[in-house]
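Protocol step 4 of 6: structure prediction from sequence.
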Amino acid sequence: MRCLAAPIFNEYGEAIAGISVSGPAVRLPDSKLEELGPMVRAAAEGVTKAMGGSPG
C-alpha cells in the first residue's frame, strides 16, 4: 500500500483534517504519485480556502 495526503487548515493555521489517495503500490508507482500530488494538494488548498482557513 502507498498513500499520499495533504492537510486542511483552519483559520488558526492548525491542520484539522486531510485529503488522501491510497492504493496498492503496484497501482501507485512514483510516476503516478508525481501526477496525483499536485491534485491532492490543490484539493486540500481549495477546502482550506472555502472554509476560511490558512496554512500557518
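Step 5 (inspection) to follow. Strands lie at 2-9, 15-23.
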